[in-house]
Amino acid sequence: MDSVQHQDHKSTKDIHDKNNSNGVVDGMIITEDLTKTATTVHDEHADGDSIEKITYKGWVAVDDQALEGKGNLVYKEYALKPWDEDDVEIKVLYCGICGTDVMALAGDEEPLQPDTICGHEIIGQVIKVGNNIENNLTVGDHVGVGWQSDCCRECHECKTENEQACLKSTVAFNSTYHRGKATNAPSKGGFAKYWRGPSNFATPIPSGLDLDIAGPLMCGGVTIYSPLERFKIGLGKKVGIVGVGGLGHMGIQFAKAMGAEVTAISRTESKKEDAIKLGADKYVATGDDLKKAFGEYTRYFDLVICAANPSNFPLADYIPILKVEGIFCFIGLIPNPVEVPIFPLIGSNAMIAGSAIGSPSVMTRMLNFAKEHNIKPWIQKYSMDDINKALISFKKGEPRYRYVLVNTDQGGEL
To answer: Which part of the chain is CATH 3.90.180.10?
Structure first.
């Protein structure tokens, strides 16, 4: 495992140049690292040309409690979705681990499909594009793929750049596609060597943004960036971030870069030093007495984002710290119902909101903002071959603050 914080890495341009020298030419896969598992066959989507057929392998969940002693992920061959002409295929360089992956593999969500491939913070290089590509991608481009893999393209949400709210969304894994040749086919994530899916959800990585830190931005990053953008956070605004963790540590950086005064809120003092390094102006350790901890913050914040996910959340203690017309926004997955006290809520015209990921257009703006303002998730890298070790460590709460898996044989760098 390699631990990285604010350290320079290979940018998209560096790795693109390297791969062009010995990797992808005119849509043909000719990299040396692929020849060990590839055979030359006729491909019906290659206009009659012979190309390298890839053996698709990934780390498969053999049961729906893969982190509970009933079987670790197994590296095996599996089937990708049927090819549609708006698809793109990428070789996976990096894939972050998100809490949703761990919850699914621990059996905390609905039962998993057979041969589930988790992973939804994917960074890769395009090796094949369809004839109806949606976002001008070409072979050799570096792209990121997050939680959402597709949408219906027909509903009001899809037509108004709110694709993340489409009721027929396809998500990264344990889901199915709803259109084209892939209708009813299961989705597959990025704990693998390759990913295939609709090009609209493969977002170009801006040149100059480090590829290894870009993975966590594809889910955790956009999840906390979206409400900051939606609620127009900027100079003079006061933002509280509840939870200095995988999402919260990126939220501190985004909010600070937008010009806000940022207060990190956590249960103990253990993450104060990190929060200050990340850009927080203030730090509140709540302990068990939130009323006392928030004594000087009455009607203080324009926006408070909850990036934590405790079993229960005492929302009543947070409403008094909101300004009149202030907003409390949940992005953390609180498993139990949250009680909302009505009188303090209406007494300050306060609002309770929720937010999840972001549309492709928001994703693009978030990545560009991260590049322009040097937003860098703090990551620790594992070889993809050590995925089981990384997942167990993640479940124990050990990341500071995101784990990134690396396919070194595909061009990723530890």
So the answer is: 2-216+377-410
